[in-house]
Amino acid sequence: MFHEGDPSGAVHLLEVGHVAVKLTTPLGEVAIVDVLQPGDTFGEQALLNPAGERSATVVAIGVVETMSIDAATFTTLFGDEVLHRFLLELLGRRLGATNRQLLEARYVAAEQRLARCLGRLADQFADTADGSIPLTQADIASMTGVTRSTANRLLRILERNGTIDIARARIRVDDRSALDRRSGVV
Fold first, then answer.
1. Could you tell me the mean pLDDT of each successive run of 10 residues in the chain, 186 residues long?
2. Which of 18, 116, 176, 184 is deepest in the core (most CB within 10 A)?
3. What is the pTM of this model?
4. CA-CA distance, 71 to 65, in Å (whole number)?
């Protein structure tokens, strides 16, 4: 969709499909910080600073359709007051999500974080053909905030227990109640 450092452009409303939001670390590693689903927005900073740069890379996961609007068009159509309320709501939700992610990263065990991540992704991809999560084990490690070897070890335990099925660039949750128990949700 766009790369970190690209000109701001427009804000997008995701109508169909899923996108991964990625950030590059100072050492050049790429981390997935979120996967968005229909109804989510991305690129909000284009409304805050139309002359600025993208702060993240957003990559389509499969077929994606969005509606987009740039700051000038938004302001022309809806006015500054609506723009400001819209931005405050978006940023408030984004800040809340970021706070929850930070709290989870600091205080929740790796196994629980991984199970919670898989649960969220299973919900997001439930409407796909076979309900599989089209991400790699490295992607899951990145989203969970663990090393790839830790993610691989935890995923293999879940696979041996019959909770998930792992294939190339795909993970399917077979026993959601077992996954929820491991995540500490239930």
1. 92 95 91 94 86 93 93 81 83 89 92 95 87 92 93 96 94 94 84
2. 18
3. 0.87
4. 20
Q: 3-state SS string over 2-17?
A: ECCCCECCEEEEEEEE
Q: Phi and psi for 153 in degrees, rounded to 5? A: -60, -45
In the chain, the amino acid numbered 68 is S
CB 76 within 8 A of CB 26: no
CA atoms within 13 A on the CB side of 165: 7
Structure tokens at 2: 């766009």
Task: Report the C-alpha gap between 174 and 164 in whole angstroms.
Answer: 5
Per DSSP, 32 falls in state: E
Q: What is the pLDDT of residue 127?
A: 82
